[in-house]
Specification:
Layout (H helix, E strand, L loop, with lengths): L3 H18 L3 E2 L2 E5 L4 E5 L5 E5 L2 H7 L5 H5 L7 E2 L5 E2 L9 H12 L1 H20 L1 H13 L3 H19 L9 H10 L4 H17 L5 H11 L7 H28 L10 H8 L14 H23 L4 H20 L6 H14 L2 H19 L3 H11 L5 H18 L3 H12 L2 H4 L5 H15 L7 H7 L4 H29 L1
Antiparallel strand pairs: 1-6, 2-3, 2-5, 3-4
Helix pairs in contact: 1-4, 1-16, 4-16, 5-13, 5-14, 5-15, 5-16, 6-13, 7-9, 7-11, 8-9, 9-11, 9-21, 10-19, 10-21, 11-23, 13-14, 14-15, 16-22, 17-18, 17-19, 18-21, 18-23, 19-21, 21-23
Length: about 500
Amino acid sequence: MPGAFTILFILTIVAVIATWLVPAGAYSKLAYNSATEQLKVTNPQGEVKNLPSTQAELDKLGVKIDIDQFKSGAINEAVSIPNTYQRLKQRPASIAAIPESMVNGTIEAVDIMVFILVLGGMIGVVKASGAFESGLVALTKKTKGHEFMLIFFIALLMVLGGTLCGIEEEAVAFYPILVPIFIAMGYDSIVCVGAIFLASSVGTAFSTINPFSVVIASNAAGINFTEGLLWRVGGCIVGAIFVILYLRWYAQKVKADPKFSYSYDDHEEFDQMWAVDSTQTGAAAGFTVRKKIILVLFVVTFPIMVWGVMAKGWWFPTMAASFLTFAIAIMLLTATGRFGIGEKGVVDAFVDGASSLVGVSLIIGLARGINIVLNDGKISDTLLEYSSSLVANISGPIFIVVMLFIFFILGFIVPSSSGLAVLSMPILAPLADTVNIPRFTVVTAYQFGQYAMLFLAPTGLVMATLQMLNMRYSHWLRFVWPVVVFLLVFGGILLVAQVLVA
């Protein structure tokens, strides 16, 4: 199996080929212009028309969304207008689109890339201070014999973070603090990804009040996000139990026999990359007050980040600035004092730490480039139009199961949860009315289908995560496929139950 960069390069070529084969087309798009306080309608040919921002105008357009959702900013992206799809002149991408999309995708992802580089710099300084090593020795002594409890609590917190506020990309920040601990406890890279990325993604798949998934999808479907909430809460509990039990089974197998590890082939490189030296001797090895302060400053950045995302609506530039603030404080402590490494030492440590995550940053940009090719080729809306025709005039249970697999496929084309919601919900949610089932079932199908794909899709966050931990995609597939099957099977059963009970 080729590496992350090669896989994304191949997929970029496939996306370019798709623009030659899949018919081009588009829906008219509707957005709210807060400056003029008007609705802006852009037709498939790119012509713009401004309309009064009233509920009556939305009703004329067939958009069953409360006008206040636009005015309040709850929906801040352009939504598709039903029954406006038009075929367009084919827009095949040229060979030049391959490198251009890579560059443009990197530019588009610069906010998260800067965040990751700042995170890497801070990690480099903390490692140079020796605080990681000393703290790790103290922690492993206290958790000896109860190692899985740490995985349990981390996975549970990640599930909660996913279901409440959609923590996934932000979860990248947790690897540097947790991976060395997992290594010291005898676990492998799979456990690290499972407890952080997998658990948070399962939580997001069963989103209860996640504003970036279920809330915006419900708004775009023209319903209140509380509809179907009890179903999602019950599903989230079952999903959390499943992922924790699965992690327990795998972690126990690896603990008993390290060669059982799905990523055992690469364990030496993984340990070399992430393990810390806990065999220091002499005065510098002590867990001093200064090192404790450094670790406290390092750890406290993460709950502050979570609070900022949930309560203040922070995005990556603000998170990066927050991390940089704490990084500067840590650099001052590490540079000065009896065992300080000086100004040049901390600057070099910051640069080295940031450079170690350049590959991860570029992966995110390359994945964005694939979506740029598909969007420029105007084929995403064509797939959405074909999908809507598949579910016309079929019975409720079959309708919702087919809808689940439609969102599974669309999740590869549009890996952004909010992006897929505003593009697809105005088109697909009204189809539920034609088979007399509640629209919230379509919202739930969107969650299950898209996230089952995002466990697999290289166009999402998976490749950046694997690159960060130097894990092969084939090893990840071997571990994650039971979770994908669980989500599709259990999700399908839950959806059919919603249809039958409604």
